């Protein structure tokens, strides 16, 4: 069992069907939460994941729609009697602020609080975030309004690669991080400063030669745009889909369990090729 569950797919302004973008990589022994928006307890319950099973939390950057749930996550874990450590990974910029935030909540005075281990990541391309028997996770700095990382998840037993852009303008670092990935989950918040449009996400997918593209972190509710998938397909020939809340990429059965259309994953994985993006 190895699956990636989309817990939220909206940009910074969620609606009743789309929470802020965050996701969960679930393996046999590790469960890695990627960003922590809103109320993680409720989302994890609804995804059918045991709350205490979380072993790792990766924070991509310190914007509220990506980290605002952290104090509540930590407090609720504590109230539910967690005793084993939680690893939290992020850039110095991110983790310094998380520690400041928790200081405002006086977390050092919470009795019998479980260990939280901070792992500060270098702002290098393809820096190792974590490695275990089932997968490896790498990060690269991307181009957003504040220091931010994109993530590359390499699933070891089946050699599948999933890349998540996080919030970014189109950038060559991301093309390199995503090179040859089976799945690219790319933000499509729009062409504003620090973000990417669906068309640009399609162009990134084409340049990185990925197997398929999922658009995420897109405008929802009354801000929803027209057909983002069609926009991306103008630039990328492979399958393009909208990521939706609670969509699940299942790497055991090689199928998406929530959506009926079949889910194609490329049969083999190739090492990174150097690709350039002129933008
Ligand atoms: Zn952001």
For this entry, give a set of tags.
7-stranded mixed beta sheet, alpha/beta, 8-stranded mixed beta sheet, 279 residues, 7 helices, binds zinc ion, single chain
Quick structural summary:
This protein is an alpha/beta fold.
What does this structure look like?
- The chain has 279 residues and is α/β, with parallel strands linked by helices.
- 21% of the residues lie in helices and 26% in strands.
- The protein has 7 helices and 15 strands.
- It has an 8-stranded mixed sheet. It has a 7-stranded mixed sheet with strand order 7-8-9-10-11-12-13.
- Strand 10, helix 5 and strand 11 form a beta-alpha-beta unit.
- Helix 5 packs across helix 6.
- The chain is globular, with a radius of gyration of 18 Å.
- Zinc ion (ZN) binds next to loops.
